[in-house]
Amino acid sequence: MIIAIDGPAASGKGTLARRIAAAYGLPHLDSGLLYRAVAWSLIARGVALEDAGQAEAAARGLDAAALGDPALRSEAAGAGASVVSAYPPVRAALLDFQRQFAATPPGAVIDGRDIGTVICPQAEVKIFVTASPEERARRRTRELLGRGEAVDEAAILADIRARDERDMNRSAAPLKPAADAALLDTTALDADAAFAAAAAIVDARALKTV
Ligand code: CDP
Ligand code: CDP
Questions:
Q1: Which ligand neighbours the alpha carbon of 12 most closely?
Q2: Within 10 Å of residue 17's Cβ, how many Cβ atoms?
Q3: Cα–Cα distance measured from residue 44 to residue 32, given in angstroms and rounded to the nearest whole number
Q4: 118/95 Cα distance (integer angstroms)
Q5: How far apart are CA 1 and CA 170, in angstroms?
Q6: pLDDT digits (tens, 9 = 90+) for 28-66
Q7: Where does this protein have coiled-coil stretches (predicted)?
């Protein structure tokens, strides 16, 4: 079974994907980490994010062992990821890894922006998670504060809006719900309530495919 969970920054899709994966016994892939790793490899070497050729080379040479680097969780890596992820050759270079992850039994839970639309259009379950930009900025602020990082909520809201804008308006695999995705607005839901709603969607869809 393949479960695709897409949505904008800080909508809670990663937290949801981890919990769904644990509950259904499936491996989990956070596809955003791949784009973050490409961006971080440029940032760490002082290469401009606008250098599409270097970004493509980094995507082709990506080593799965690099995905555990805590630096990938920074806002700088996230913002950089949304720049390099707009380059079609970068997306093409990361496609096979994601498809193979999904195709390996017993299946997978993958979260990102284009999992239900491009990477796994055949996924049995597709959930598009949303929340208002203000609520997403509050969540990211709380998360960063919890990690002891200095934060400015207004700057985080501005970054989230800029990222939404770039992700929705790019021509390569723009952020949008698949036609057959279930929409899950978590603005008023905590992580437990979001998980319960998502599990009900998974159960209903999985039943239909037996
Ligand atoms: O956790 P958050 O939503 O903040 O970020 P992420 O999922 O790690 O994604 C970082 C950036 O990578 C996004 O803003 C997208 O531009 C890009 N991305 C993408 O293009 N396609 C994906 N499947 C996943 C991420
Ligand atoms: O992966 P994405 O960027 O969409 O979001 P996340 O990293 O899973 O979640 C961002 C923060 O929101 C985390 O600290 C979660 O604990 C919190 N949160 C959530 O995931 N779901 C809710 N319904 C409410 C809060």
A1: 2
A2: 29
A3: 18
A4: 9
A5: 30
A6: 999 999 999 999 999 999 999 999 999 999 999 999 899
A7: none
Give pairs for 142-151: CB < 8 Å, separation 24+: 143/10, 144/75
d(CA 58, CA 153): 31
Per the DSSP assignment, residues forming a β-bridge with 183 are 128
What is the residue whose two structure tokens read 């017993």? 106
Which pLDDT value is given to residue 150?
Answer: 85
131 vs 187: CA distance, rounded Å: 4
Atom of ligand 2 nearest to the CA of 32: 1
pLDDT classification of 209: cutoffs 50, 70, 90: low
47's tokens: 């290469």
113, 115, 126, 138: residue to mutate for ligand 1 pocket, most atoms within 8 A of CB: 113
Tokens in use for 73? Answer: 């969780």
Instruction: Could you please state the CATH topology (level 3) that the domain comprising 2-209 is classified under.
Output: Rossmann fold (3.40.50)
C-alpha angle with apex 167: 162 to 172, nearest 5 degrees? 145
